[in-house]
TrEMBL record:
It catalyses: 5-amino-1-(5-phospho-D-ribosyl)imidazole-4-carboxylate + L-aspartate + ATP = (2S)-2-[5-amino-1-(5-phospho-beta-D-ribosyl)imidazole-4-carboxamido]succinate + ADP + phosphate + 2 H(+). The keyword ATP-binding applies. Pfam families: SAICAR_synt. This is Phosphoribosylaminoimidazole-succinocarboxamide synthase. It comes from the Bacteria. InterPro entries: SAICAR_synt/ADE2_N, SAICAR_synthetase.
Length: 225
């Protein structure tokens, strides 16, 4: 198997059948040994967390498949912490798309002069460029078009998919008494279509229960439990 990419938390291999294999590692992003899903450096290892992140991802990808949403997910081998996926082309050097139902985190750091933390937002979508050195800068749809990363039409498809997928995740969590505040996705291009790629793990979302934030490792237990 040919390794095509070494990521911070996953490695990507090319399979003989043309698909990719994602290997979920036990490396976690964080700083000074403290787990921080939003960080851009690997800070620690947590035994078994790769497999747990894969399980949560499979849980949501299966739900999305039933809902008719196109994703890269093909199959998974939980014991080996691997997932077979369709080989997508990322947009530019990669994008992150965030959907927000409550104003927290970087939204409040930017716009906190205009609303209080926790104010409801109506599936607000924003996009960042994946660029660790620049701290993943925000970019507008016009910006993506101007730098040749995606067309306005592709952006519209990606935004609509983001809101649909986020709604499905939100409803799924609500059935467990959990409240989705925000969530981050990656999209790619495959066979002429925009599809959801990467992972949907506990570290990709902020979830609250009874007004208190649920830490990612606890969230995994609540989702799978
Ligand atoms: N179906 C797919 N086709 C092509 N690339 C994919 C696919 N699914 C995921 N990827 C890419 O595989 C890589 C997985 O690496 P990993 O999750 O460790 O993130 P990273 O690139 O190091 O950075 P970050 O965690 O900040 O996003 C990502 O770059 C992601 O864009
Ligand atoms: Mg990643």
């Amino acid at each position: 198997m040919n390794k095509v990419y070494t990521g911070k938390t996953k490695d990507v291999y090319a399979l003989d059948n043309g698909n990719y294999q994602l290997k979920f590692k036990d490396d976690c992003t964080g700083t000074d040994g403290v787990f921080d899903p939003g960080a851009n450096t690997v800070g620690l290892q947590i035994e078994g967390i790769g497999r747990e992140n894969l399980k949560v991802s499979v849980y949501f990808f299966e739900i999305l498949k039933k809902a008719g949403v196109k994703t890269h997910y093909v199959s998974a081998d939980i014991d080996n912490a691997t997932m077979e996926v369709l080989p997508a082309k990322v947009f530019g050097k990669g994008l992150e798309v965030i959907c927000r139902y409550r104003a927290v985190g970087s939204f409040i750091r930017r716009y906190g002069a205009y609303m209080e933390s926790g104010t409801p937002l109506n599936a607000y979508v924003e996009t960042t460029l994946k660029d660790d050195d620049l701290g993943d800068p925000l970019i507008t749809p016009d910006g993506l078009d101007a730098i040749g990363v995606m067309t306005l039409d592709q952006y519209a498809q990606m935004k609509a998919m983001t809101q649909k997928i986020s709604g499905i995740v939100k409803d799924t969590l609500a059935e467990k008494g959990l409240d989705l505040y925000d969530i981050k996705f990656e999209f790619g291009y495959y066979n002429g279509e925009v599809i959801l790629i990467d992972e949907i793990a506990s570290g990709n979302m902020r979830v609250y229960k009874d007004g208190e934030i649920v830490e990612p490792t606890d969230l995994t237990k609540l989702i799978l439990g």
